[in-house]
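Retry 2 of 3 after timeout on previous attempt. Resubmitting structure tokens to design endpoint.
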């Protein structure tokens, strides 16, 4: 049984999740070990590293980049990344003059096979409502300053279509191999709230 001391400082969502898991376990509807396995799979094997591999390949292979922008789902599947929440992924490319950012205004639709579990800020109602109305201000608050002449396009993910941003390749990385580029690609750069990291 949970006591008041156990809950101090814990977010309400975490407490509700724990209570729901306990209830479902007691009724025999879920197996905690299976649930832990799913969480581990998405935290370690499925996640931003998959997306980073997709981006690094697109940066180094023009033909793959073309296929990725034409049919994101098929090109991503070429690298072995598919599954629930990744049935239809559209890829858009950031350039020096155009910047794309992704949001899900209704809930938290997100391309799990290439980005893993969505971060808490992505699900936050403030981000979901404000990035549509004032994307430049929200990006600035998140640490991304864009020039005034850069056009910002906001893409709304849904259960039918999920979006992935192909970030700009950082300058000075022309000599790096595909494998060396992977660590420069962050989850946030593939959502469009940051740029890929410089080496």
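Retry 2 succeeded. Sequence:
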């Amino acid at each position: 049984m949970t006591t008041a001391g156990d809950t101090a400082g814990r977010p309400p969502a975490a407490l509700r999740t724990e209570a729901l898991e306990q209830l479902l376990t007691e009724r025999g509807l879920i197996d905690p070990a299976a649930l832990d396995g799913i969480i581990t799979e998405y935290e370690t094997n499925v996640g931003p590293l998959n997306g980073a591999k997709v981006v690094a390949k697109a940066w180094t292979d023009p033909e793959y980049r073309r296929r990725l922008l034409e049919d994101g789902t098929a090109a991503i599947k070429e690298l072995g990344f598919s599954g629930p929440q990744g049935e239809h992924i559209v890829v858009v490319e950031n350039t020096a003059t155009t910047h794309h950012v992704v949001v899900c205004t209704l809930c938290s639709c997100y391309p799990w096979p290439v980005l893993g579990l969505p971060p808490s800020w992505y699900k936050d109602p403030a981000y979901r409502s404000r990035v549509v109305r004032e994307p430049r201000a929200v990006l600035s608050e998140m640490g991304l300053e864009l020039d005034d002449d850069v056009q910002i396009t906001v893409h709304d993910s849904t259960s039918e279509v999920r979006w992935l941003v192909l970030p700009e390749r950082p300058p000075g990385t022309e000599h790096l191999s595909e494998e060396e580029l992977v660590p420069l690609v962050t989850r946030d750069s593939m959502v469009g709230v940051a740029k890929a990291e410089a080496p």
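Attempt log closed. Strands lie at 89-93, 98-103, 151-156, 162-166.
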